[in-house]
């Protein structure tokens, strides 16, 4: 599991370097979550999860409030949730999640990003079966044994716990995201180094050094697209 955490760190570091882009993506996601349910995180679980994730990226309160107020104001702006699957260089696999108000534009842009960077689009289901949906939550200042005991006491169903340097990472099914965080809060933990709903590859692959640049260009091209929210892959970039 440690390699999976390394991939998430690489992804987060990349996004931290592009704050305006990540803030815009979170603004859209918060709006969609608030629009689909109540614009109150206490009664809208999906919105609560998005806001918890946004905290780990230091999304400004003004952006969060603006997105929620837009949903409250009855905006008729609507977005479709789309998932694309594809292949990159050296046997790499990718999943691309998007929120879009123009399906044709997004499909064309994603296909072009793949085609111009050594990849190609796959059909639905061609890649996703090699990934598992997961909640990944990390904290600092606690031991692996302490957290395992806590999760057992709180009867939280988790998949794995891994110690990585000063961070302890808990892996669980997506529906356990809130339960894991609530368990941590009984220890007084309110700040998380990572809080993600993600797709984890069942098996990571390595790319030769000479192929990494092309793969990273493909990732950047996809993440730079306005409609793309998340890009998941099975490449161990930390090697």
TrEMBL record:
Residue ranges of every copy of the TACO1/YebC-like second and third domain listed in the record: 79-235
Keyword Ribosomal protein part of the UniProt annotation: no
Localization (cell): Cytoplasm
GO CC, alphabetical: cytosol
Matching Pfam families: TACO1_YebC_N, Transcrip_reg
Transmembrane annotation, as ranges: none
Domain of life: Bacteria
A biological-process GO annotation: regulation of DNA-templated transcription
UniProt keyword annotation of Transcription regulation present: yes
One Gene Ontology term of the molecular function aspect: DNA binding
UniProtKB keywords: Cytoplasm, DNA-binding, Transcription, Transcription regulation
Stored InterPro entries: Integrase-like_N (IPR017856), TACO1_YebC-like_2nd/3rd_dom (IPR048300), TACO1_YebC_N (IPR049083), Transcrip_reg_TACO1-like (IPR002876), Transcrip_reg_TACO1-like_dom3 (IPR026564), Transcrip_reg_TACO1_YeeN (IPR026562), YebC-like (IPR029072)
TACO1/YebC-like N-terminal domain ranges (all copies): 3-74
UniProt-listed Gene3D superfamilies: 1.10.10.200, 3.30.70.980
Predominant location category: cytoplasm
NCBIfam families: PRK00110.1, PRK12378.1, YebC/PmpR family DNA-binding transcriptional regulator
Family: Belongs to the TACO1 family. YeeN subfamily.
PANTHER family from the UniProt entry: TRANSLATIONAL ACTIVATOR OF CYTOCHROME C OXIDASE 1
Protein name: Probable transcriptional regulatory protein FN960_08545
Source organism (scientific name): Alkalicoccobacillus porphyridii
């Amino acid at each position: 599991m440690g390699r999976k955490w390394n991939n998430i760190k690489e992804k987060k570091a990349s996004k931290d370097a592009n704050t305006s882009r990540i803030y815009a993506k979170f603004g859209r996601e918060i709006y969609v979550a608030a629009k689909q349910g109540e614009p109150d995180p206490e009664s809208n679980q999906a919105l609560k999860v998005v806001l918890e994730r946004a905290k780990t990226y230091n999304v400004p309160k003004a952006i969060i409030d603006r997105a929620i107020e837009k949903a409250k104001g009855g905006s008729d702006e609507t977005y479709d949730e789309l998932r694309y699957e594809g292949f990159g260089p050296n046997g790499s696999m990718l999943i691309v999640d998007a929120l879009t108000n123009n399906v044709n534009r997004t499909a064309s842009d994603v296909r072009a990003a793949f085609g111009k960077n050594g990849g190609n689009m796959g059909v639905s289901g061609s890649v996703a079966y090699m990934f598992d949906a997961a909640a990944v939550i990390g904290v600092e200042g606690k031991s692996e044994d302490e957290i395992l005991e806590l999760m057992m006491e709180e009867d939280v169903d988790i998949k794995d716990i891994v110690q990585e340097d000063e961070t302890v990472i808990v892996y669980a099914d997506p529906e356990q995201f809130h339960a894991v965080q609530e368990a941590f809060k009984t220890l007084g933990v309110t700040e998380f180094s990572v809080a993600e709903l993600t797709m984890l590859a069942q098996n990571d692959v390595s790319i030769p050094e000479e192929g990494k640049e092309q793969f990273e260009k493909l990732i950047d091209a996809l993440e730079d697209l306005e409609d793309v929210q998340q890009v998941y892959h099975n490449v161990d970039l930390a090697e």
